[in-house]
Amino acid sequence: MLNQQEKVTPRSELIHRIKQLLKQENAVLVAHYYVAPEIQDLALESGGCVGDSLEMARFGREHPATTVVVAGVRFMGETASILSPEKRILMPSLEATCSLDLGCPADKFADFCAQHPDRTVVVYANTSAAVKAQADWVVTSSVGLDIVASLHANGEKILWAPDRHLGSYIQRETGADMLLWHGDCIVHDEFKGLELEALRRQHPDAKVLVHPEAPESVVQQADVVGSTTRLIKASTELDATHFIVATDQGILHEMRKQAPNKTFLAAPTAGESASCKSCAFCPWMAMNELDKLASALESGLNQITVDPALARAARLPIERMLNFSAQQQRRVRSSGNIENDMELYQHVGAV
Ligand code: 13P
Ligand code: SF4
After folding, report:
1. pTM surpassing 0.90?
2. Structural domain span for residue 252
3. Angstrom distance (rounded) from CA 138 to CA 115
4. Residue 277 pLDDT > 80, yes or no?
5. Do 48 and 65 have their domain in common?
6. What does the UniProt record say this protein does (predicted)?
7. What's the gap in Å between 24 CA and the centre of ligand 1?
Protein backbone atom coordinates (compact mmCIF):
# COMPACT_ATOMS: atom_id res chain seq x y z
CA MET A 1 0.00 0.00 0.00
CA LEU A 2 1.26 3.48 -0.90
CA ASN A 3 1.77 5.98 1.92
CA GLN A 4 0.64 9.63 1.49
CA GLN A 5 3.92 10.80 -0.03
CA GLU A 6 4.11 7.92 -2.50
CA LYS A 7 0.62 8.53 -3.91
CA VAL A 8 0.81 9.72 -7.50
CA THR A 9 -1.42 12.74 -8.12
CA PRO A 10 -3.09 13.12 -11.54
CA ARG A 11 -0.97 16.24 -12.13
CA SER A 12 2.30 14.50 -11.49
CA GLU A 13 1.06 11.62 -13.67
CA LEU A 14 0.43 14.12 -16.45
CA ILE A 15 3.91 15.57 -16.04
CA HIS A 16 5.39 12.07 -16.08
CA ARG A 17 3.41 11.26 -19.25
CA ILE A 18 4.62 14.45 -20.97
CA LYS A 19 8.24 13.58 -20.14
CA GLN A 20 7.73 10.14 -21.72
CA LEU A 21 6.08 11.64 -24.78
CA LEU A 22 8.90 14.14 -25.23
CA LYS A 23 11.41 11.26 -25.30
CA GLN A 24 9.23 9.05 -27.51
CA GLU A 25 8.70 11.85 -30.06
CA ASN A 26 12.34 13.04 -29.99
CA ALA A 27 10.94 16.38 -28.88
CA VAL A 28 12.24 19.27 -26.80
CA LEU A 29 10.14 21.74 -24.80
CA VAL A 30 11.04 25.42 -25.14
CA ALA A 31 9.13 27.72 -22.79
CA HIS A 32 8.85 31.46 -22.13
CA TYR A 33 9.18 32.98 -18.65
CA TYR A 34 5.51 34.03 -18.70
CA VAL A 35 4.01 30.53 -18.88
CA ALA A 36 2.84 28.64 -15.77
CA PRO A 37 5.61 27.69 -13.30
CA GLU A 38 4.93 23.95 -13.73
CA ILE A 39 5.56 24.24 -17.49
CA GLN A 40 8.74 26.26 -16.94
CA ASP A 41 9.98 23.60 -14.51
CA LEU A 42 9.01 20.80 -16.88
CA ALA A 43 10.96 22.42 -19.72
CA LEU A 44 14.10 22.55 -17.57
CA GLU A 45 13.68 19.08 -16.03
CA SER A 46 13.23 17.51 -19.48
CA GLY A 47 16.35 19.07 -20.99
CA GLY A 48 14.62 21.97 -22.74
CA CYS A 49 14.90 25.66 -21.93
CA VAL A 50 13.07 28.61 -20.43
CA GLY A 51 14.11 31.90 -21.94
CA ASP A 52 13.28 35.22 -23.50
CA SER A 53 12.08 35.22 -27.08
CA LEU A 54 15.59 35.49 -28.56
CA GLU A 55 16.93 32.60 -26.46
CA MET A 56 13.90 30.47 -27.35
CA ALA A 57 14.55 31.05 -31.06
CA ARG A 58 18.24 30.15 -30.70
CA PHE A 59 17.67 27.10 -28.53
CA GLY A 60 14.96 25.60 -30.77
CA ARG A 61 17.15 26.02 -33.85
CA GLU A 62 20.30 24.59 -32.29
CA HIS A 63 18.79 21.62 -30.44
CA PRO A 64 19.06 18.27 -32.27
CA ALA A 65 15.45 17.23 -31.50
CA THR A 66 13.24 16.72 -34.56
CA THR A 67 10.16 18.14 -32.81
CA VAL A 68 10.17 21.44 -30.91
CA VAL A 69 7.25 22.14 -28.60
CA VAL A 70 6.93 25.88 -28.07
CA ALA A 71 5.15 26.91 -24.88
CA GLY A 72 4.64 30.57 -25.58
CA VAL A 73 2.63 32.51 -28.13
CA ARG A 74 2.11 32.08 -31.85
CA PHE A 75 4.89 34.36 -33.09
CA MET A 76 7.41 32.27 -31.10
CA GLY A 77 6.16 29.08 -32.76
CA GLU A 78 6.30 30.74 -36.18
CA THR A 79 9.86 31.94 -35.58
CA ALA A 80 10.89 28.38 -34.62
CA SER A 81 9.29 27.06 -37.80
CA ILE A 82 10.93 29.73 -39.98
CA LEU A 83 14.36 28.97 -38.53
CA SER A 84 13.94 25.17 -38.60
CA PRO A 85 11.64 24.28 -41.52
CA GLU A 86 12.83 20.68 -41.34
CA LYS A 87 11.53 20.28 -37.77
CA ARG A 88 7.98 19.71 -36.56
CA ILE A 89 6.89 22.66 -34.39
CA LEU A 90 4.01 22.00 -31.99
CA MET A 91 2.25 24.34 -29.59
CA PRO A 92 -0.11 23.53 -26.72
CA SER A 93 -2.60 26.02 -28.20
CA LEU A 94 -2.73 27.58 -31.64
CA GLU A 95 -5.05 30.25 -30.23
CA ALA A 96 -2.27 31.77 -28.12
CA THR A 97 -1.49 35.01 -29.89
CA CYS A 98 -0.30 38.50 -28.89
CA SER A 99 -1.98 41.91 -29.04
CA LEU A 100 1.05 43.34 -30.86
CA ASP A 101 0.75 40.69 -33.58
CA LEU A 102 -3.04 41.18 -33.83
CA GLY A 103 -2.66 44.97 -34.00
CA CYS A 104 -0.33 44.91 -37.00
CA PRO A 105 -2.07 43.28 -40.00
CA ALA A 106 0.27 42.52 -42.90
CA ASP A 107 -1.75 44.45 -45.54
CA LYS A 108 -1.96 47.66 -43.45
CA PHE A 109 1.72 47.32 -42.60
CA ALA A 110 2.53 47.00 -46.33
CA ASP A 111 0.70 50.33 -46.95
CA PHE A 112 2.71 51.98 -44.14
CA CYS A 113 6.00 50.71 -45.62
CA ALA A 114 4.98 51.79 -49.15
CA GLN A 115 4.51 55.36 -47.90
CA HIS A 116 8.09 55.48 -46.56
CA PRO A 117 10.33 53.62 -49.01
CA ASP A 118 13.41 55.55 -47.82
CA ARG A 119 13.32 54.00 -44.34
CA THR A 120 14.92 50.84 -42.98
CA VAL A 121 12.11 48.60 -41.74
CA VAL A 122 12.68 47.21 -38.24
CA VAL A 123 9.99 45.02 -36.69
CA TYR A 124 9.67 43.58 -33.23
CA ALA A 125 9.62 39.77 -33.07
CA ASN A 126 6.03 39.95 -31.74
CA THR A 127 4.61 40.00 -35.28
CA SER A 128 3.32 37.52 -37.85
CA ALA A 129 5.58 35.86 -40.41
CA ALA A 130 3.82 37.98 -43.07
CA VAL A 131 4.94 41.19 -41.34
CA LYS A 132 8.47 39.89 -40.71
CA ALA A 133 8.70 39.03 -44.42
CA GLN A 134 8.45 42.78 -45.18
CA ALA A 135 11.22 43.80 -42.77
CA ASP A 136 14.91 44.53 -43.16
CA TRP A 137 15.50 43.61 -39.51
CA VAL A 138 13.62 41.66 -36.85
CA VAL A 139 14.56 42.50 -33.25
CA THR A 140 13.62 41.30 -29.78
CA SER A 141 13.74 43.40 -26.64
CA SER A 142 17.22 42.03 -25.86
CA VAL A 143 18.89 43.43 -28.99
CA GLY A 144 16.48 46.08 -30.34
CA LEU A 145 18.27 49.04 -28.84
CA ASP A 146 21.72 47.98 -30.06
CA ILE A 147 20.54 47.16 -33.56
CA VAL A 148 18.75 50.49 -33.97
CA ALA A 149 21.77 52.30 -32.47
CA SER A 150 24.01 50.73 -35.08
CA LEU A 151 21.59 51.53 -37.94
CA HIS A 152 21.37 55.11 -36.67
CA ALA A 153 25.17 55.37 -36.54
CA ASN A 154 25.08 54.26 -40.18
CA GLY A 155 22.81 57.23 -41.04
CA GLU A 156 19.68 55.12 -41.58
CA LYS A 157 16.16 56.36 -40.82
CA ILE A 158 13.88 53.77 -39.24
CA LEU A 159 10.30 52.63 -39.76
CA TRP A 160 9.39 50.75 -36.58
CA ALA A 161 6.50 48.41 -35.72
CA PRO A 162 4.48 47.50 -33.82
CA ASP A 163 5.13 48.37 -30.13
CA ARG A 164 4.96 52.13 -29.65
CA HIS A 165 6.36 52.04 -26.09
CA LEU A 166 9.41 49.94 -27.00
CA GLY A 167 9.84 52.06 -30.16
CA SER A 168 9.77 55.35 -28.29
CA TYR A 169 12.09 53.99 -25.58
CA ILE A 170 14.64 53.05 -28.27
CA GLN A 171 14.12 56.42 -29.96
CA ARG A 172 14.82 58.28 -26.69
CA GLU A 173 17.89 56.19 -25.93
CA THR A 174 19.47 56.28 -29.39
CA GLY A 175 18.22 59.59 -30.82
CA ALA A 176 17.40 57.70 -34.04
CA ASP A 177 14.89 59.08 -36.54
CA MET A 178 12.04 56.59 -36.06
CA LEU A 179 8.50 56.51 -37.42
CA LEU A 180 6.39 54.41 -35.07
CA TRP A 181 3.44 52.11 -35.64
CA HIS A 182 0.93 52.56 -32.81
CA GLY A 183 0.59 49.09 -31.30
CA ASP A 184 0.86 48.04 -27.69
CA CYS A 185 0.93 45.04 -25.41
CA ILE A 186 -2.34 44.79 -23.49
CA VAL A 187 -0.43 43.56 -20.43
CA HIS A 188 2.45 46.07 -20.21
CA ASP A 189 0.37 49.05 -21.35
CA GLU A 190 -1.57 48.74 -18.08
CA PHE A 191 1.33 49.60 -15.75
CA LYS A 192 0.72 52.93 -14.02
CA GLY A 193 3.41 55.54 -13.36
CA LEU A 194 1.67 57.35 -10.47
CA GLU A 195 0.84 54.14 -8.61
CA LEU A 196 4.42 52.97 -9.11
CA GLU A 197 5.67 56.21 -7.50
CA ALA A 198 3.43 55.50 -4.51
CA LEU A 199 4.73 51.92 -4.18
CA ARG A 200 8.31 53.16 -4.39
CA ARG A 201 7.62 55.57 -1.52
CA GLN A 202 6.58 52.55 0.58
CA HIS A 203 9.76 50.68 -0.44
CA PRO A 204 12.41 53.37 -0.93
CA ASP A 205 15.29 50.87 -1.17
CA ALA A 206 13.63 48.68 -3.78
CA LYS A 207 15.13 48.49 -7.27
CA VAL A 208 12.67 48.82 -10.14
CA LEU A 209 12.89 46.35 -13.05
CA VAL A 210 10.85 47.23 -16.14
CA HIS A 211 10.20 45.55 -19.49
CA PRO A 212 10.42 48.17 -22.28
CA GLU A 213 6.90 47.41 -23.51
CA ALA A 214 5.70 49.45 -20.49
CA PRO A 215 4.69 53.14 -20.89
CA GLU A 216 7.28 55.92 -20.59
CA SER A 217 6.03 57.04 -17.14
CA VAL A 218 6.98 53.57 -15.84
CA VAL A 219 10.22 53.13 -17.83
CA GLN A 220 11.46 56.48 -16.49
CA GLN A 221 11.39 55.13 -12.93
CA ALA A 222 13.37 51.98 -13.78
CA ASP A 223 16.77 51.02 -12.41
CA VAL A 224 17.00 48.42 -15.17
CA VAL A 225 15.02 48.27 -18.43
CA GLY A 226 15.33 45.09 -20.42
CA SER A 227 14.18 41.79 -21.82
CA THR A 228 12.84 39.13 -19.47
CA THR A 229 16.26 37.47 -19.22
CA ARG A 230 17.96 40.79 -18.54
CA LEU A 231 15.51 41.53 -15.71
CA ILE A 232 16.09 38.11 -14.13
CA LYS A 233 19.85 38.61 -14.25
CA ALA A 234 19.49 42.06 -12.70
CA SER A 235 17.42 40.60 -9.88
CA THR A 236 20.24 38.22 -8.93
CA GLU A 237 23.16 40.58 -9.44
CA LEU A 238 21.94 43.93 -8.08
CA ASP A 239 22.73 44.63 -4.48
CA ALA A 240 19.18 45.03 -3.15
CA THR A 241 16.78 42.91 -1.13
CA HIS A 242 13.54 44.27 -2.62
CA PHE A 243 12.53 44.57 -6.26
CA ILE A 244 9.46 46.04 -7.94
CA VAL A 245 8.86 44.21 -11.20
CA ALA A 246 6.92 45.71 -14.12
CA THR A 247 6.31 42.81 -16.46
CA ASP A 248 4.10 39.70 -16.62
CA GLN A 249 4.10 38.04 -13.20
CA GLY A 250 5.07 34.68 -14.67
CA ILE A 251 8.66 35.95 -14.47
CA LEU A 252 8.52 35.99 -10.65
CA HIS A 253 8.80 32.19 -10.59
CA GLU A 254 12.33 32.23 -12.04
CA MET A 255 13.32 35.32 -10.02
CA ARG A 256 12.27 33.63 -6.77
CA LYS A 257 14.11 30.44 -7.75
CA GLN A 258 17.32 32.31 -8.54
CA ALA A 259 17.15 34.71 -5.58
CA PRO A 260 15.10 32.95 -2.87
CA ASN A 261 16.11 35.41 -0.15
CA LYS A 262 14.94 38.49 -2.02
CA THR A 263 11.46 40.01 -2.06
CA PHE A 264 9.70 40.64 -5.36
CA LEU A 265 6.72 42.96 -5.61
CA ALA A 266 4.52 43.19 -8.68
CA ALA A 267 4.29 46.74 -10.09
CA PRO A 268 0.78 48.22 -10.01
CA THR A 269 -1.54 48.03 -12.99
CA ALA A 270 -4.38 49.89 -11.26
CA GLY A 271 -5.19 52.42 -8.54
CA GLU A 272 -6.24 52.05 -4.89
CA SER A 273 -9.93 51.47 -5.58
CA ALA A 274 -9.42 48.59 -8.00
CA SER A 275 -10.06 45.04 -6.82
CA CYS A 276 -6.86 43.82 -8.48
CA LYS A 277 -3.94 46.24 -8.21
CA SER A 278 -1.31 44.08 -9.89
CA CYS A 279 -2.88 41.98 -12.61
CA ALA A 280 -0.11 41.63 -15.15
CA PHE A 281 -0.83 38.22 -16.66
CA CYS A 282 -0.83 37.61 -20.39
CA PRO A 283 -4.09 35.79 -21.25
CA TRP A 284 -2.46 34.12 -24.25
CA MET A 285 0.56 32.83 -22.34
CA ALA A 286 -1.95 31.34 -19.87
CA MET A 287 -3.33 29.13 -22.67
CA ASN A 288 -0.24 26.94 -22.31
CA GLU A 289 -1.73 24.26 -20.05
CA LEU A 290 -0.36 20.85 -19.14
CA ASP A 291 -3.25 18.86 -20.59
CA LYS A 292 -3.07 20.76 -23.88
CA LEU A 293 0.67 20.16 -24.00
CA ALA A 294 0.12 16.42 -23.52
CA SER A 295 -2.60 16.35 -26.21
CA ALA A 296 -0.41 18.22 -28.70
CA LEU A 297 2.31 15.59 -28.26
CA GLU A 298 -0.15 12.68 -28.33
CA SER A 299 -2.14 13.79 -31.36
CA GLY A 300 0.51 15.66 -33.34
CA LEU A 301 -2.14 18.29 -33.95
CA ASN A 302 -1.45 21.97 -33.22
CA GLN A 303 1.45 21.98 -35.61
CA ILE A 304 2.67 25.42 -36.69
CA THR A 305 3.31 25.77 -40.38
CA VAL A 306 4.41 28.85 -42.28
CA ASP A 307 3.97 29.27 -46.02
CA PRO A 308 7.43 28.39 -47.48
CA ALA A 309 7.75 31.57 -49.57
CA LEU A 310 6.83 33.75 -46.58
CA ALA A 311 9.17 31.75 -44.35
CA ARG A 312 12.09 32.28 -46.75
CA ALA A 313 11.45 36.04 -46.81
CA ALA A 314 10.97 36.27 -43.04
CA ARG A 315 14.08 34.22 -42.30
CA LEU A 316 16.51 36.80 -43.68
CA PRO A 317 15.73 39.62 -41.17
CA ILE A 318 15.61 37.09 -38.31
CA GLU A 319 19.02 35.68 -39.28
CA ARG A 320 20.38 39.25 -39.40
CA MET A 321 19.32 39.71 -35.79
CA LEU A 322 20.81 36.38 -34.70
CA ASN A 323 24.10 37.16 -36.45
CA PHE A 324 24.22 40.66 -34.95
CA SER A 325 23.67 39.27 -31.47
CA ALA A 326 26.24 36.46 -31.91
CA GLN A 327 28.86 38.91 -33.23
CA GLN A 328 28.17 41.32 -30.40
CA GLN A 329 28.66 38.61 -27.79
CA ARG A 330 31.87 37.40 -29.45
CA ARG A 331 33.24 40.96 -29.57
CA VAL A 332 32.53 41.61 -25.93
CA ARG A 333 33.93 38.26 -24.78
CA SER A 334 37.13 38.73 -26.80
CA SER A 335 37.61 42.25 -25.42
CA GLY A 336 38.41 40.47 -22.15
CA ASN A 337 37.50 40.36 -18.50
CA ILE A 338 33.88 39.45 -19.02
CA GLU A 339 33.20 37.13 -16.12
CA ASN A 340 29.56 36.38 -16.72
CA ASP A 341 26.55 37.19 -18.86
CA MET A 342 25.40 40.03 -16.64
CA GLU A 343 28.70 41.81 -17.15
CA LEU A 344 28.38 41.08 -20.83
CA TYR A 345 24.95 42.71 -21.00
CA GLN A 346 26.07 45.73 -18.99
CA HIS A 347 29.18 46.02 -21.11
CA VAL A 348 27.32 46.13 -24.43
CA GLY A 349 24.46 48.17 -22.96
CA ALA A 350 21.96 45.69 -24.41
CA VAL A 351 18.30 46.30 -23.62
P1 13P B 1 11.11 38.98 -24.17
O2 13P B 1 11.75 38.84 -25.51
O3 13P B 1 11.75 40.03 -23.31
O4 13P B 1 11.01 37.68 -23.48
O5 13P B 1 9.62 39.53 -24.41
C6 13P B 1 8.65 38.86 -25.12
C7 13P B 1 7.31 39.35 -24.80
O8 13P B 1 6.34 38.97 -25.40
C9 13P B 1 7.18 40.33 -23.73
O10 13P B 1 5.85 40.65 -23.53
FE1 SF4 C 1 2.16 39.84 -26.43
FE2 SF4 C 1 2.06 41.30 -24.27
FE3 SF4 C 1 1.43 38.73 -24.13
FE4 SF4 C 1 4.01 39.50 -24.52
S5 SF4 C 1 2.74 39.86 -22.69
S6 SF4 C 1 2.91 37.89 -25.61
S7 SF4 C 1 3.70 41.33 -25.78
S8 SF4 C 1 0.32 40.33 -25.27
Report:
1. yes
2. 193-281
3. 20
4. no
5. yes
6. Catalyzes the condensation of iminoaspartate with dihydroxyacetone phosphate to form quinolinate.
7. 30
